[in-house]
Amino acid sequence: MARVMLDDMIAELEGQLGVAPGADPTLETKAVPTAAPPAPTGAAPVPPAEGKKKKDKKKAKGDGGKNKGGGGGKGAVDENQPLITRLDIRVGQIVEVWEVEGSDKLFGEKIDVGEEEPRTICSGLRQFYTLEQMQGRRILVFCNLKPRKMGAVKSNGMVLCAEAEVNGARHVEFVDPPADAAVGERLTFEGLSGEPWVPNQIQKKKVLEGVFPGLRVNTGGEATWEGSRFMTTAGVCTAPTLTDCEMH
């Protein structure tokens, strides 16, 4: 009787505890493991370090600068190119002129050659022209020579003149472009072609010294180099009065 009562009490207690009849209450229920989330199939791209970004940007900027080219750079040259075509000779116009202080020969000129600002150039022409004759004059200008000091002024180019002895006296005059030639136009040379060299190469290869012996005004008053006429889109360049003489 006591045994029956004890069994009933155990069954009632198991029911209160939620334990199945006859189960061992000391056993723990094992948790069912859950599946781990799948690993990502590919890693997200890692942005470059800030320092590397700046370095790459600086390098790109530096490389771009090399492509700009400059008047003083090395530049590519063609050794077989006719000498005269290596020079950048343009139509210019004197917009301002003055007598260089400390010299009795030099004019200082501001010359428009089609660039943002006029070039400052010195010419030893005071024996042959007055200030009034120089002002506004259209001329030919060598534009790819290295600047050099003349008196107290840095001259950035050279003007082209014809020279001859007339009645026993030295006579020098500008070589004129055609009246309709545009300021800044680069001259071409009849039958010849080639792009101008940079100033460093002009100086290094002594191009100007090689060109001078072939510069002449022909018997028709036309400017030539070894027989090739100096041309613009408006026609040939000429000396106003001189013929069959040298130019420089």
In short:
With 248 residues, the chain is α+β, with helices and mostly antiparallel strands. The protein is built from five helices and 15 strands. It has a domain at 83-247: Beta Barrel (OB fold (Dihydrolipoamide Acetyltransferase, E2P)).
Please characterize this protein's 3D structure:
It is a single chain. By secondary structure, the chain is an alpha+beta fold. It has a domain at 83-247: Beta Barrel (OB fold (Dihydrolipoamide Acetyltransferase, E2P)). The chain is 20% helix and 26% strand. The chain contains 5 helices and 15 strands. The chain has helices at 2-17, 50-68, 131-134, 199-204, 207-211; strands at residues 89-99, 107-112, 119-123, 138-142, 148-150, 153-155, 158-159, 161-166, 169-174, 188-189, 215-217, 223-225, 228-232, 235-236, 245-247. Strands 8, 9, 10, 11, 12, 13, 14 and 15 form an 8-stranded antiparallel sheet that branches. Strands 3-2-1-4-7 form a 5-stranded antiparallel sheet, with no helix packed on it. Strands 5-6 form a two-stranded antiparallel ribbon. The longest helix is centred in the N-terminal third of the chain and has 19 residues, at 50-68. It is globular, with a radius of gyration of 45 Å. The termini are far apart.
